Amino acid sequence: MKTIQDFNFENKKALIRVDFNVPLNENKEVTDATRIEAAKPTIIKVLEDGGSAVLMSHLGRPKGVQEEYSLKHIVDKVSDSIGVQVKFSENCIGEDAEKMVADLEPGEVLLLENLRFHKEETEGDRKFAEQLAKMGDLYVNDAFGTAHRAHASTAIIAEFFPNKKCFGSLLAKEIESIEKVLKTGEKPVTAVLGGSKVSSKITIIENILDKIDHLIIGGGMTYTFIKAQGGAIGDSICEDDKQELALSILKKAEAKGVEVHLPVDVLGANAFSNDAETQVVSVDKIPDGWQGLDVGPETIKIFHDVLMKSKTILWNGPLGVFEMENFAEGTIALGKSIAKATEQGAFSLVGGGDSVAAVKQFELDDEVSYVSTGGGAMLESLEGKTLPGIAAMEE
Q1: 378: confidence class by pLDDT, cuts 50, 70, 90
Q2: Which has more pLDDT, 124 or 148?
Q3: Which of 88, 277, 281, 287 sits a CA distance of 20 to 30 A from 122?
Q4: For position 353, what pLDDT does the model report?
Q5: Dihedral sign, Cα of residue 186, residue 207, residue 146, residue 354
Q6: C-alpha closest to that of 177 among 33, 308, 38
Q7: How far is residue 263 from each of residues 83, 106, 238, measured CA to CA in Å?
Q8: Residues 47, 86: contact at Cβ < 8 Å?
């Protein structure tokens, strides 16, 4: 795969697909600039080479042109982040946009208006992609968050730059991190999968069983596994129709020599509320009227010991309802264990919306090896799917 390091951008206009789909508050101010910061190394490389950068992104899911989804709201934040006053084009295609691109001097940055103001973007329209392609001499895809979509600005546009396309630093790092877990990682490899549903993780589990040595299961899906094995789970969340599936996963794991670690104790609550009464109970003896909302102290110890022996770690999904303070302990402890393993030389990849939110909330994001910026794209990579935005760059 060609990366931005393989090109010199001197006197060139780099058309960079970034993922600036950032959260805004009611005053249209950016509340989390992580994705903007993540694109910075790629933009700076182009500028330092003596080139100019044309940035294109989507924001939200607008129906046609909707002012609240305009990228003009983020121009100041992008300017602050990269240290260059960013220019703004009120359209992403057409004569006015083309003129602004033509007038760009080396060292300048132009942000194009929201790609999704045109329905052709999500339709993967070839003509629209061709119009976008006029905005640069080289194409750089640095938007991992949209790599799993066959959109015009990611999967289709690449064909208009046969030998002049590459991955940006962020996208290259995302691919490399996932490959470390799935292909090149030092053993033992441990995957920690949390979240509420087995059904949403089944394809990931099936794809990674050949690559891992340990599988830690937590979160709501624990109870589908425990009930399937005959345990009493009280009022805990459970996918009754997935019990057979849970048992087949355990059988497959055993056949492949993968050790599965399920919680042994949980913090039970008599209501789904931060103020509920709580008690620590055995995971397979939860009384009626009670539900497991976090892992218990014995489980925290067991999971910690597994992680301390691991050399490569994937974490996707929390161990409990960490949004409620009283049920966050398991997820915090897990994050700290992964941080400690990382400090001792393990490679750790955290991905998926809730896990990323957790490591940020508990300020552990700098203590793991890599935090993925693309929720859906990362999950599809782990499922073994070929992402259209990545395949297009390799053709």
Answers
A1: confident
A2: 124
A3: 88
A4: 66
A5: negative
A6: 38
A7: 48, 57, 15
A8: no
Which residue's structure tokens are 């935005």? 389
* Tokens found for residue 287: 């009384």
- Give the whole-angstrom CA distance, residue 311 versus residue 346: 4
Rg of the chain taking only CA atoms, in angstroms: 23
Return the amino acid letter for 362: F
Encode 17-51: b = buried (16+ Cβ within 10 Å), e = exposed: bbbbbbebeeeeebeebebbebbbebbebbbebeb
Transcribe 24-88 into DSSP letters: B-TTS-BS--HHHHHHHHHHHHHHHHT-EEEEE---S--SSS-GGG-GGGGHHHHHHHHTS--EE
* Start-to-end Cα distance in the chain: 10
- Contact at 8 Å (CB) between 137 and 54? no
Which class for 222: exposed (0-12), middle (13-18), buried (19 or more C-beta within 10 A)?
buried
Q: What is the mean pLDDT of residues 339-364?
A: 90
Q: Is the pTM of this model over 0.90?
A: no
CA–CA gap between residue 53 and residue 305 (Å, rounded): 47
Could you give the residue numbers annotated as active site?
Answer: 35, 197, 353, 376
In sequence order, what are the beta bridge partners of 295? 266
340 CB-contact burial (10 Å; exposed 0-12 / middle 13-18 / buried 19+): middle
Strands 278-282 and 265-269: antiparallel
Dist. CA 190–CA 218, nearest whole Å: 13
pLDDT given for residue 387 in this prediction: 86
